[in-house]
Specification:
The structure is a homodimer of 410-residue chains.
Chain A (H helix, E strand, L loop, with lengths): L2 E6 L7 H16 L3 E6 L5 H12 L5 H25 L4 E4 L6 E3 L8 E4 L2 H8 L3 E5 L2 E3 L5 E3 L4 H13 L3 E6 L20 E3 H9 L7 H10 L3 E5 L7 E4 L12 E5 L3 E9 L4 H11 L4 E8 L4 E8 L4 H12 L6 E5 L2 E7 L9 H11 L4 E7 L2 E7 L3 H11 L11
Parallel strand pairs in A: 1-2, 1-9, 2-6, 3-6, 9-11, 10-12
Antiparallel strand pairs in A: 4-5, 7-8, 11-12, 13-18, 14-16, 14-17, 15-16, 18-20, 19-20
Helix pairs in contact in A: 1-3, 2-3, 5-7, 6-7, 8-9, 10-11
């Protein structure tokens, strides 16, 4: 019998009616002959409400207690989900992270999964129960409750699917699947039938949302077939999987735009070993998350270093750079806030020429100036003027025919 | 160092301000040199809200899942309580019933405590933490979350006090302590300085509220000094303890009235061995909780049996009696709903004559007719007309001088 893991996010279990609908879906899969494990998030805005309760009492609440508090949200959902299954005539049992031994490290509020017990789940599946597991939470070796941080329930679901050797991990959400680009920005965007883990990782890290990067990494590592689909209808969504044969012809799978960015440039840094390390270690200590880095040699003595950060990190980054400026003999620092990054992502571009050309030509034709360029094996990103960034995205999408299904592109 | 257990009920932790005040109290006790263990209930009406959430999804929710759901209320309180302690500069740690191994049987929604782990609590107390334990909840041997039923947090607190060998178990509530009778019924009622477990048990079973009978039984069994006191001020409340020397002179400690009653009379039941057992086994199967039973022999062949039940159980009781009526050859059944029970409770009456006389005389002087009388070692109860029951209570209270402190009565 195939095991299917179904994950329902907060909006899909926000009230009694939605929980009932989600339970219906789990029962349907069970009736099709699958053993069904459900992973559920806290209802609607409940986590936000609990955070507000905590802040009212202590503006800087200890993280262990925060995890203790927040984990109740998922616990409530799973018990209600089990009740909904019984109301629909299906036996079900709910478990906390602790009860199934979802063992994590002790990094409260952003714990990492170390091991998952599967005996109890498998026993209950074999007895005909739908098993409902609280997402987002685990337990450290001392029995303290931990939580997995942003996107934690996705990670719980994919990790459980891996541990159980599940056939598929279905992620139910309020969108239809993964699109070639954000449909709000490019209305002609099409839903992708499938996408590789690597591409999805690039899209997630570029802010395309839908799924958190850590769950994709988990899926890639343990080869879990992830199906992102709508909780509102039965149409298939997007399958995230390893690269498959028929993908090979496709050069570019998707495009993204990322506006929450600022660029910091450091001009005339002493071109000595260790200076880059000094700068970025210092930024890391200031808890600034640095995106794309470009270093160019100006002369044998001097180099320019630039990088992008989230706008929310800009003040901390500016302060950190000011502190280190003299140490690395940086002559000048500038900041640009009026930038955005447009990117194309595709496994196909690895082995094909002409992809970068086509992107740059599209931008040139749209009269968009390129500030800087960074690339990975499966991604090309251009920093452009914020004012021109929407036009830039449209130009790229048109150039790579992202309005057509993947197999119809030329 | 003395260990003190402090229990805060739902009204004492209903919001951030109240949680802060309760935390203040725990910290004050800690600063006086005590090791403090707090047991807390769910905030305000939260349990009611969770029950409503459940009923909306499943009018007959499975009990295991109900326990899973309801236990989150206390878990939220204890984590918020710990945060409040930190905000006030005191380190603290919260635990679920599962985390401290509050082991119960598997009777979900009304589980009984079997064993309590104390190692983890003692370790944290020795490290200088205030330890905050979720009341009302435990865990069975398989790790399923259980709850202890009505008044469960009191039971958690007293049981923890027993297991830890605590000096006192303080029960914080919104009343000042235990009164000689309900002050709303008899405004001259006085707060008792102390009362014995047995008396408190009789008062609890007669509906005097404040504390649930099971926690008192626990206190009696393990000799836990229980201090019922107000969470609003620092005045001492009432100490529940074993009988003490200075109690001996006191005949009657308190009086109660119980109006939620109906009397069922079975006339002319065959006076054969086993008939009473048949009737009450049948009622137990129908989940009717029977109060005082009176059986009188009418002749060598026939007996009359009467008993009282809660008004909420009356329909089930009536149905059950109808089913069994022929089997026991009962000639006639009557029901009285217009009755109430007034009782006096006191360890002193065991060894004193004249107590019953005084009660009956007081009722006669007040022109209250007595329907029937039942007694235990430390209690005398009279069933009277509902219309006359308030007057009956006043008459009894006056007769036994319940408006005076216990040591001033004659």
């Amino acid at each position: 019998m195939a095991i299917v893991v179904q994950k329902f996010g907060g909006t899909s279990v926000a009230n009694a009616e939605k929980i009932r609908r989600a339970a219906d879906r789990a029962i349907a899969s069970s009736k099709q002959g699958n053993q069904v494990v459900v992973v559920a998030s806290a209802r609607g805005k409940q986590t936000d409400e609990l955070v507000a309760d905590a802040i009212e009492i202590n503006p800087n609440p200890p993280k262990r207690e925060m995890d203790m508090l927040l984990s109740t949200g998922e616990q409530q959902t799973v018990s209600l989900f089990a009740m909904a299954c019984y109301a629909l005539g299906q036996k079900a049992i709910s478990f906390t992270g602790s009860q199934i031994q979802m063992i994590t490290d002790d990094a409260h509020t952003k714990a990492r999964i170390q091991n998952i017990g599967t005996d109890r789940i498998k026993k209950k599946l074999d007895e005909g129960f739908i098993v409902i597991v609280a997402g987002f939470q685990g337990v450290d070796e001392e029995g303290n409750i931990t939580t997995l941080g942003r996107g934690g329930s996705d990670t719980s679901a994919v990790a459980l699917a891996a541990a159980l050797g599940a056939d598929t991990c279905e992620i139910y959400t309020d969108v239809d699947g993964i699109y070639s680009t954000d449909p709000r920005k490019y209305p002609k965007a099409v839903k992708m039938k499938q996408i590789s883990y690597d591409e999805m990782l690039e899209l997630a890290s570029l802010g395309a949302g839908v799924m958190h990067g850590r769950s994709i990494e988990f899926g890639k590592k343990y080869n879990v077939k992830i199906h992102v689909r709508s909780s509102l209808h039965d149409e298939p969504g997007t399958l995230i999987t390893h690269e498959v044969a028929k993908m090979e012809g496709i050069l570019v799978s998707g495009a993204t735009i990322h506006k929450d960015l600022a660029k910091i440039g450091m001009i005339g840094v002493d071109n000595r070993p260790g200076n880059a390390a000094r700068i970025f270690t210092h930024l890391a200590k200031a808890k600034v998350s640095v995106n794309d880095i470009i270093q160019t040699e100006v002369s044998s003595e001097k180099a320019n270093i630039s990088f992008t950060v989230s706008k929310s990190d800009l003040d901390s980054a500016r302060q950190a750079i000011e502190d280190i400026q003299e140490t690395v003999h940086c002559q000048n620092v500038f900041v640009r806030e009026d930038v955005a990054e447009v990117s194309i992502v595709g496994v196909g571009m690895r082995s094909h020429y002409g992809v970068a050309d086509r992107m740059f030509q599209a931008l040139a034709d749209a009269a968009v100036n390129i500030d800087s360029i960074t690339t990975s094996e499966i991604r090309i990103s251009c920093l452009v003027d914020l004012d021109h960034s929407d036009a830039a995205l449209t130009a790229i999408c048109d150039a790579f025919q992202l309005d057509k299904p993947a197999d119809k592109r030329t």
